[in-house]
Amino acid sequence: MDLNTTIWLNIVTVILLADAMIAAAMIINKVYKKGRMQTFGKNREYILRAVSENHAEGSRKIPFSFYAEMRQSLRLDAESCEKMKGLFDIKKAERKALRRAESVFRTTRIRGVAELGMLGTEKARHALELGLLREKDSSVKLYMANSLSEIGDSNSISVMVASLFNANRFYREKVNMLIAGFGSEFNDYLPTIMTVDRVEIVELIVDFASGHFSALVKDYLIQLIDTRQEKLDWYSRMYGSDVDCCGNCIHRSLMVGSSSTIKCRYKGIRPGNYVCRRHTLLPVSINSGENYRQVVYKACRILAEYYPAFLDDEKYLKSADQTIKNIAVGALANYRSEDRIVRLIGLLTEEETSRSASKAISAIIEKNPGYINAVADALAETENIVARRELARILAGKIEYFIMKLTKGNKEKAEKIIFEVLKLGRSSEIIDFLNKNKNLDIEAELIRIVRKASEDLPELEHTLSIYLNRVLLEKCGIIPYMVETEKKEEKKDRNLTTYLVELLVVMTAGPFLIYAVRHMDTLRTLPLDDQIRHFVRDFNYGFVFYSAAINIAYLMLLLFSYINVVKQKRLQAVKDVSMLFKKKMLPSVSIIAPAYNEEKTIIESSNSLLNLKYPDYELIIVNDGSKDDTLQTLIRYFNLIRVDYMFESSLKTKPVRGIYRNPARPGFTVVDKENGGKADTLNAGINISSKEYFCGIDADSLIEEEALLRLAAMTLDENQETPALGGNIFPINGCQVEKGKINKTGIPRNCLARVQMMEYIRSFMGGRLGWAYLNSLLIISGAFGLFRKDRVVGVGGYLTSSERYEKDTVGEDMELVVRIVRSIRELGGSYRICYAYNANCWTEVPEEIGVLRKQRYRWHKGLIDILYFHKEMLFNPDYGRAGIMAMPYFFIFEMAGPLIEMGGYFMAIAAFFLGMMNYEIALLLFVTTILMGTLVSMSSLMISEKGAAYFTVKEVLVLAGYAIAENFGIRQILSVWRVGAFFEMFRSTGGWNKAERKGFSSAQTADR
């Protein structure tokens, strides 16, 4: 045995020992976690008993970490928290927290700041105030401001106000609400800053007014609105000037504008120990003028809510500023006035105010139904088409009132109103009433009116043919609409085909050219059989090098994943629920769930999404022309009705056929549209969404109750824009599910699903967490991702043939992220794509090999399509790490990798049968392809278990077995499929190809 063989045998031994040690470490970790949970449980019982019996002082001491965990897990009142402080050494905890708050490491600093807030001592408060004015990192400053708000000392108000100057918008909008949380104490402080003419102060006072209205605030808002144009002109003149001020001139005891030198009560603040003499107050951002304008509009809306009579003035109702004009019109609905309904009806005739007036009239009718007859009379009398359209929309919402009059004596007026509403295109409510009605007399009268209206309106007849039930259609003499399945003729991209052919030629000829260059001296002299032997040997050594390179890359990513998990765990530990649920702390979210043939799982999934723990979100389910009973299942279960819902089509999509809502569930909307694929469906949901971010999730998936909270909370930890965030995906096969909630997690029973469980763990825990740490993440799974709506709309939404690029893709999840990254880099901006280790989404995975094969074909074809579409980014330093690291990785290892891998296996088999396989090559191939692959999978499993305990010891051992077994045939089959997908790209790019689902229910349980 030669020296090289001995070395490689030692490497084999080391890898096997590493696998064994990882398995042992996972078991030990589980035992430790179980013991720690028991200890925590005992300490919690002891703490609660000590607090309830009022003998916290003098009791046995506990570590401060248990107090911190108690604060996180239980909602305790201030009195209980004070009693608990007697159970640990507060001075010792204070010293440690102060040291951490001064750390050079950002995560440690945040932890120290949070602990100081929990302690709430005078020394802790003073340290936080001083740190808030010195700190440059806006994310750390936010935690400091939150800790000061938790302590709740009014002396901190001035420091928190000072921290707003020259801060970014992200920090200001959150800290404004923290300051507003001081309530009456901040109201008393207001006179100190009301003369300050800076956007930050104006924003602060207006945000305060949105939740705390007083006479002082009212006068300020009125003055702000009346002097708006003067201020906007001033901002325009001052745009681009330099700030000649230390930015820390405003404290509780100081008045801005003083010309004398006033000693600052904080040391070390620029410029020295004194507040600067000059107080030039200038814009704080490029768009200060626009910021000011938006603040003025917000002030108008607040006045419209709290003091609407102020806006009942011609200078506002006839304002040249269209937004102020519409707000003033809407304010008429908020106070009692004899002629307000008449005035609002008159305002319906103006195109620019018709919608605001319509909303105001609807609000008045809701409070005073008696006004409905005045609206009906106005519809009969007016000839203005804009007013008629809006009046019809108003009356459509109350159409049942007129329908019920059809069987009474004086029915002519009701009949005329119904006819006019139908003629003006408001049919949804009438159709819904007919479908649910059981009164035959009313049905006969209503059908007569509908038939009469449909004779003159072909579009009404078409609408009725789609949405009216078949029995009623027969009575109306209308033929039911037959949905024609549109067969998409895929356009073959000749450029893509040429690109793939060129790539294939290069990859095929490459090894031969390399061999020819290396053996140029002997190329003509050696016999052919020797040439073949040398070529096969060189190819196998090259394949060994490639396998080693890809697995080393995986192991490096695993290292970064581990660091990322540790970092996220520490940051999560300092985010308590009270912080996350404070107003505006987290962004508002629209959850968009595309549904195509999801009849079996749609109710469980909907219930899951409706029961998330999150402060501000809405759910939009988009039915993409399902062929099964998906839509009707939703309508029946949630008692939905079809409504005429107005929305802005920012993105072009296939036609929307109907929108369904239930007034009792204002945050839930179901959209029915023509089939256009998943990307088109998501774009339709984006159009209808109304929140700051949207969360794309598959309708056949369930997300954990706190998953969205954990994912969105990552936005608090970044100083850069976070345009996209992603979470984990795990197979739900084998979990106990009841009423949309996972009661018990477990590994699947099916062997194929278990293989995918291991594969998902390796991909998400070992790959995406590592890429996120390097800020090079380019994939957010379509099953669970969070995106900034304005950023997505700005780049054209998901890639579809309906939108600006006129192109479809089957890899919509990765493509959108790549396009966002590309757009930001081209505009010179900075960003961070985040990934949460413990925000989990559970989805059903295929349990049949044919279905799995189709899925993997689709995935790989999507990857190829994306890499070709964005080929300009490959190896391009202009796109930062995405261009020089992430894109090349996907090109070399993910797209071309399967071709190289299959070539390597073919050569290895050829060498074996030709008798060319020597002991050393066989050993090298075994180490680099099998053993290193096993090490990667085992390490990924260990990282997943470090983040959270998902599985029992038995299940961990089973998964460890699959981590080893998948390298012997399973991984090779997946590579063969990916090669097949590569060659299938010459024929077509494919479509959604939604897999058939078995559905999940409470019967699904894991093996125990």
Automatic annotation (TrEMBL):
<feature type="transmembrane region" description="Helical">
    <location>
        <begin position="921"/>
        <end position="942"/>
    </location>
</feature>
<keyword id="KW-0328">Glycosyltransferase</keyword>
<keyword id="KW-1133">Transmembrane helix</keyword>
<feature type="transmembrane region" description="Helical">
    <location>
        <begin position="889"/>
        <end position="914"/>
    </location>
</feature>
<dbReference type="InterPro" id="IPR001173">
    <property type="entry name" value="Glyco_trans_2-like"/>
</dbReference>
<dbReference type="InterPro" id="IPR029044">
    <property type="entry name" value="Nucleotide-diphossugar_trans"/>
</dbReference>
<feature type="transmembrane region" description="Helical">
    <location>
        <begin position="496"/>
        <end position="517"/>
    </location>
</feature>
<feature type="transmembrane region" description="Helical">
    <location>
        <begin position="543"/>
        <end position="565"/>
    </location>
</feature>
<feature type="domain" description="Glycosyltransferase 2-like">
    <location>
        <begin position="590"/>
        <end position="715"/>
    </location>
</feature>
<keyword id="KW-0808">Transferase</keyword>
<protein>
    <submittedName>
        <fullName>Glycosyltransferase, catalytic subunit of cellulose synthase and poly-beta-1,6-N-acetylglucosamine synthase</fullName>
    </submittedName>
</protein>
<comment type="similarity">
    <text>Belongs to the glycosyltransferase 2 family.</text>
</comment>
<dbReference type="GO" id="GO:0016757">
    <property type="term" value="F:glycosyltransferase activity"/>
</dbReference>
<feature type="transmembrane region" description="Helical">
    <location>
        <begin position="6"/>
        <end position="28"/>
    </location>
</feature>
<dbReference type="Pfam" id="PF00535">
    <property type="entry name" value="Glycos_transf_2"/>
</dbReference>
<feature type="transmembrane region" description="Helical">
    <location>
        <begin position="948"/>
        <end position="965"/>
    </location>
</feature>
<keyword id="KW-0472">Membrane</keyword>
<feature type="transmembrane region" description="Helical">
    <location>
        <begin position="769"/>
        <end position="787"/>
    </location>
</feature>
<keyword id="KW-0812">Transmembrane</keyword>
